[in-house]
Amino acid sequence: MSAHPNSGTFLPPAVRLAKIVGTVGSGALTGFYYTHSRHTIPSLLASNAPAEKLVKAFKHIHHASHTPTLATIIASSSSFAYVAYYLFYYPPNHAGVATTTFASSSFFPSTSIDYPLGDEWALYGASALLVALVVPYTKSFMNAVQKSLLGAAESAETTERRKLGVNVVEEKKVREDFEEWKWRSTIRAGLAGAATAIAVVGLVA
């Protein structure tokens, strides 16, 4: 029988905590983006509600989730970056991990020194980059469609406040924007999901 500690066994508590924060954060982002892309928005479209109600619901979701998701991105990416920094400058292969083996033929256990994966920092560096990429991806590839939907919501709310009784939101355009937003947001979920998968490899390495 032998006990093989992984490369994270003797890391400082702050580094181990950062691993957890980063992985949990990116996993939460993955679930949030995927759920909105493949469940929330499709459910709104399937409800056959008027376009005005759809865009107002989208605006509410967007404003309610913007700050928490941005905070999660910062926390997760920063945690991964910290772990990558630490493992780069203090690689685990500089300190051996003791392995104790017990054999039935000997009364005394034998001990050897293993040297864990030395490039683990690159895994966390990749995860930090993937999570951080969510922000420029959103700005570059989703900004236009989000502005279109939020602008439609503002127009609908203005018309409602003024009690004009005029349909100012084009149904076809709104549904096209939602379809575009769905698949672009699914890619965003993929970025966070890839970061999570890579981090999990680092956790078990």
From TrEMBL:
GO terms for cellular component: membrane. It is a multi-pass membrane protein. Pfam families: Anthrone_oxy. Keywords: Membrane, Transmembrane, Transmembrane helix. Coiled coil: none annotated. It is found in: Membrane. InterPro entries: Anthrone_oxy. Belongs to the anthrone oxygenase family. This is DUF1772-domain-containing protein. The lineage of its organism: Eukaryota, Fungi, Dikarya, Ascomycota, Pezizomycotina.
